[in-house]
């Protein structure tokens, strides 16, 4: 690896369908187990900035939403235990999408 910054995003597809588009979702523990070796490689390669995204809100059923919640909590712990700087953990927040007319109006008002 030869980069200054790496962006790592796991979770949504793993929760929805499992590894390699399977027919069942992974557990939070399984997803973290996939992620940890990647983070270890990035640290070993002295990547200066690691941006780690959690699994954003989706239209999951109750069972998969529980996995998403557990995964995001475990991800915080993983980031703190594996990564040197805890501030590199980024939490995505679900933001309402603006329609294009609203965006154009907001830009015109600036």
Write structural notes for this entry.
The chain is mainly alpha-helical. The chain contains 4 helices and 3 strands. α3 (62-82) links the parallel β2 (49-53) and β3 (89-90). α2 runs parallel beside α3 (62-82). The longest helix has 21 residues, at 62-82. The termini are far apart. Mean pLDDT is 76; it is low at 84-110.
In short:
The protein is built from 4 helices and 3 strands; from the N terminus they run βααβαβα.
Which key terms come to mind for this protein?
elongated; 110 residues
Multimeric organization: single chain
Distance between the termini: 42 Å
Q: State the low-pLDDT regions, or none.
A: 84-110
Assess the beta-strand content as a share of residues.
Answer: 5-15%
Q: Order of strands side by side in the largest beta sheet?
A: 1-2-3
Number of extended strands: 3
Q: Structural class, from secondary structure content?
A: mainly alpha
CA-based gyration radius: 17 Å
Largest sheet: 3 strands, parallel
Run of helices and strands: EHHEHEH
What is the share of helical residues? Answer: 40-55%
Number of helical regions: 4
């Amino acid at each position: 690896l030869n980069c200054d910054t790496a962006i790592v995003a796991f979770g949504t597809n793993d929760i929805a369908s499992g590894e390699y588009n399977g027919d069942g979702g992974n557990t939070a523990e399984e997803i973290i187990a996939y992620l940890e070796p990647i983070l270890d490689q990035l640290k070993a390669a002295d990547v200066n900035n690691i941006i780690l995204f959690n699994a954003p809100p989706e239209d999951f059923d109750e069972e998969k939403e529980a996995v998403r919640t557990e995964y995001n909590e475990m991800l915080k712990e993983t980031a703190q235990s594996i990564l040197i700087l805890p501030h590199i953990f980024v939490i995505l927040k679900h933001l309402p999408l603006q329609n294009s007319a609203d965006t154009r109006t907001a830009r015109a008002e600036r």
